[in-house]
């Protein structure tokens, strides 16, 4: 059974013990759950991170403690935070600083600050981001979600928190205000694959991650390979990192007789890891093996990496513009809109 606490009141020369007003922290301690979970339940927020049994326990403990919401505090919390949240999978990925810069360039003149939430590209990280956002930490969200889908994100729209998805090509979600800004990942990868074939390559492998935009890129690569009568050759590793790219390249180089003559990394960091592994094996790029990437991060030009250029600054700026328009009085209303930006093939010395 949950128990209440007391606090001391002072008056007219003597102390009086009065029951303390139960707080959400008290409920969390009594129920054995996090304070964030209590906040979500008491604010009637539907989220998959709080199971029904936990929700029931929290409500029962709140009733036993005699919890009453603090309406003045809630009114204060309902005010604008003048903050945009930028939810990304990896703060160390060189692709994202340019995107955040574009976001800030538009947000700051409109009076908004930008907070970054790093999910580490994991489902539990994305779920924590949703819970954090539902606590009213930001007025709008720009996000890359690898694992959550539109039905799971709809809770933000229902709470009046506009969301702009990055690197996600999808149809507007009915009446929900979920926007997206993206390039055509499949077509960009297809064009890069055509370039590799035009350069005379027939054994072309693609290094991809298990999730995220590399899935669309793999579709474009695979379609062009099959159209050319060639067999797609996918090498999948766990993450978008140089370490993953190096591991995948080592696996390719261990083959006997059917080594690829070209490798296409689904991101620049994967391609850079592949380049490092190839050079460590004594191979010359591109005479022994050609390597291409995707994103055009700043170091790609320095290393001569042929790659697909994403306009990351413009992606961030357009995402911020969309949020500002949705949040301003008389601004955009649902449904969500999709905005496609152009990509460019950057031909350099690695192919």
UniProtKB/TrEMBL annotation:
Recorded GO MF terms: DNA-binding transcription factor activity; transcription cis-regulatory region binding
SUPFAM superfamilies tied to this protein: lambda repressor-like DNA-binding domains, Periplasmic binding protein-like I
Gene3D superfamilies associated with the record: 3.40.50.2300, lambda repressor-like DNA-binding domains
CDD domains: HTH_LacI, PBP1_LacI_sugar_binding-like
InterPro entries registered for this protein in UniProt: HTH_LacI, Lambda_DNA-bd_dom_sf, Peripla_BP/Lac1_sug-bd_dom, Peripla_BP_I
Pfam family, one: LacI
Protein name in the entry: LacI family transcriptional regulator
């Amino acid at each position: 059974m949950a128990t209440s606490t007391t606090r001391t009141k002072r008056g007219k020369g003597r102390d009086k013990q009065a029951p303390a007003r139960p707080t959400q922290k008290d409920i969390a301690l009594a129920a054995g759950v996090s304070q964030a979970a209590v906040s979500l339940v008491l604010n009637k927020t539907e989220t998959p991170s709080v199971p029904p049994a936990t929700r029931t326990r929290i409500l029962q403990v709140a009733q036993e403690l005699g919890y009453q919401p603090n309406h003045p505090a809630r009114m204060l919390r309902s005010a604008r935070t003048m903050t945009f949240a930028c939810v990304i999978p990896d703060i160390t990925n060189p692709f994202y600083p340019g995107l955040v810069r574009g976001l800030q360039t538009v947000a700051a003149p409109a009076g908004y600050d930008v907070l970054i939430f790093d999910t580490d590209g994991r489902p539990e990280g994305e779920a924590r981001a949703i819970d954090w956002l539902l606590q009213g930490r930001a007025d709008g969200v720009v996000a890359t979600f690898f694992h959550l889908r539109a039905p799971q994100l709809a809770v933000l729209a229902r709470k009046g928190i506009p969301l702009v998805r990055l690197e996600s090509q999808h149809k507007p979600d009915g009446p929900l205000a979920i926007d997206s800004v993206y390039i055509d990942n499949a077509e960009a990868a297809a064009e890069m694959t055509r370039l590799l074939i035009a350069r005379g390559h027939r054994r072309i492998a693609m290094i991809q991650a298990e999730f995220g935009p590399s899935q669309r890129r793999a579709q474009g690569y695979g379609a062009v390979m099959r159209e050319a009568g060639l067999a797609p050759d996918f090498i999948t590793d766990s993450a978008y990192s140089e370490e993953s790219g190096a591991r995948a390249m080592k696996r390719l180089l261990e083959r006997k007789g059917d080594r690829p003559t070209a490798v296409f990394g689904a991101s620049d960091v994967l391609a850079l890891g592949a380049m490092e592994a190839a050079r460590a094996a004594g191979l010359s790029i591109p005479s022994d093996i050609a390597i291409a990437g995707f994103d055009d991060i700043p170091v790609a030009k320095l290393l001569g990496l042929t790659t697909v250029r994403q306009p990351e600054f413009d992606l961030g700026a357009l995402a911020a513009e969309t949020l500002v328009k949705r949040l301003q009085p008389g601004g955009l209303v649902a449904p969500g809109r999709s905005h496609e930006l152009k990509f460019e093939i950057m031909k350099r010395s690695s192919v």
